[in-house]
Amino acid sequence: MIVAAVGKNASGKDYFLDVISKQFDIPVISFGDCARELADQEGLVHTRENLQYISQKYMSTYGQDFFPKMMIEKIKKMGLKNVLVSGIRPPSDAEAFKSAFGEDFFLVAIVLESDRLRYERMVARGSARDNVTYEQFLALDQREEKLFNTSKTMEMANYTFVRGDYSDEIYHEKIREFFLENCSK
Fold first, then answer.
1. Is 167 helix (H, G, I), strand (E, B) or coil?
2. Residue 84 CB: number of other CB atoms within 10 A?
3. Strand order in 105-111's β-sheet?
4. Is pLDDT at 6 greater than 80 in this prediction?
5. Could you report the per-residue pLDDT of 26-65, keeping only the tens digit for each?
6. For residue 184, is pLDDT > 80?
7. What pairs with residue 110 in β-bridges?
8. Rounded to whole angstroms, how far apart are CA atoms 137 and 11?
9. Residue in 61, 7, 55, 57 with CA at minimum distance from that of residue 31
10. What mean pLDDT comes out for the span 91-100?
């Protein structure tokens, strides 16, 4: 099973996948790692703007399916039954994975409804690429939506997981229950 998460920046996509990874010993691979590798090759610092630039550049040059093809090839070379995928963005990403893996592809939309809370969580990560004001964060959201149309991809999800106001212990259990009910084969 290939389980991928989609959602807005700082909605908890990677955290969600990391919990599954640790509970079930499943590797996580990331679109972001591909973009960061390309940024390194071009001598660019890993800011959100630079990574968006890299994504746009390579998709414009090689097609919207450049990154999904790269990821699908990596997954197939891994030869594993289960893999978690971080960084699905445009609808074409989900379509490429669905085409490559059929019913073994499961897309989860991760929702954290408060923009302010998403921002606070992003700042708490302490990543240099996230060093922006709240207003810049909202502008980046708009730019990312325009570039990737992530909301449309979220509509394509097999399941929407809303991050409630739970303790970590309860949240981890809810993720475990979700995975066992929907994704374990």
1. coil
2. 24
3. 28-30, 83-86, 2-6, 105-111, 159-162
4. yes
5. 999 998 888 998 999 999 998 878 988 998 899 899 988 8
6. no
7. 161
8. 13
9. 55
10. 95
